[in-house]
Amino acid sequence: MLKVLLFSLMAMAHSDHAAHNQAAHVHGAGKVSLAFDGKKGKLEFHAPAESIYGFEHAAKSKKDKQKKEEALSKLGEKISEMVVLDPALKCEIKLDMYEVIEKKNHSDVEGEFNISCEAPVAGSTITFNFQKVFPRLKKVQVEVLADQVQKSLEVGKNGETLELK
Question: Model confidence over 73-109: pLDDT tens digits?
Fold first, then answer.
């Protein structure tokens, strides 16, 4: 059910934005999609590798490999600091998987996370702090579907919030 919700959210996002915004690989720009069905949710994270670990070429040197691994670990460990759900909901965000997609001249980082809460997320507020963890992320387009509530926000600084009402 959550995969269907997330797919629906992604399809709506594609129809809501110009094609060049979705296909473009823009340093400093990321995309986060959240879909909730009651107390359970999924989060998808997408950003250029340059915005996450500082480069896009294949990591060959020991220094580059270490920098890449540290940044990818940080993504998994700090997601709940970047996407802050209302503490009263007692939510837990866990990394499901991440991958680095290397294309001709670009690399992107994609991550999927499972969210479980003790109460439904609809009706609450989410706070975003992407730049606190990854300062190179200047703008993150956020799309949220929580039960019957659909909202979007372009996050350009720490502390921006989205009310799911």
Answer: 999 999 999 999 999 999 999 999 999 998 887 899 9
What's the pTM?
0.85
Burial of residue 155 (number of CB atoms within 10 Å: 0-12, 13-18, 19+): buried
Residue 27: both structure tokens together: 């340093």
Q: How many helices (H) and strands (E) does the chain have?
A: 5, 9
Q: Is the per-residue pLDDT at 121 higher than 50?
A: yes
**pLDDT value at residue 21:** 39
Q: Report the alpha-carbon distance of residue 162 to residue 83 in Å, rounded.
A: 11
CB 30 within 8 A of CB 47: yes
Rounded to a whole number of angstroms, the distance between the first and last alpha carbons of the chain is: 22
Q: Which of 13, 37, 15 is nearest to 149 (CA)?
A: 37
Burial class (CB in 10 A: 0-12, 13-18, 19+), 158: middle
CA distances from 103 to 40, 46, 58, 125, 127 (A): 33, 14, 10, 36, 32
Is the per-residue pLDDT at 27 higher than 90? Answer: no
The values of phi and psi at residue 17, to 5°, are -115, 155
Residue corresponding to tokens 């340093």: 27
